[in-house]
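Researcher: Next entry in the queue.
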Amino acid sequence: MVEFVDCSSMSIQYDATGKASLSFVVLKDSVSSLSNSYTHMTVGGVSFVGSIMSLSKTPILGSDWFEWRLQIQGVGN
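Model: Structure for this entry, 77 residues:
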C-alpha cells in the first residue's frame, strides 16, 4: 500500500496563543485506514504534536485511490 501527503495541500496557521492548525490531504491507494496517525509530524523543521479534529475520505474517480482530508490542532516546537 502506498500513502503520502500531498505537500501542495499543506496549510499551517497559528493563533495568538501559539496553537497550530494544520490541514492537508493524504493520498492512499486502498480503502483501508491510514498507516500513519499524523498526530506527530515534522514540517519545515518544526515538530508538531496534536489531535485530529476532522477527517474525511473521498474516492478519486476513475482510480483505486482515496483522498483523506485531515485537520489537526496542536502545538509546534
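Model: The chain has one domain: 3-76.
Researcher: Noted, moving on.
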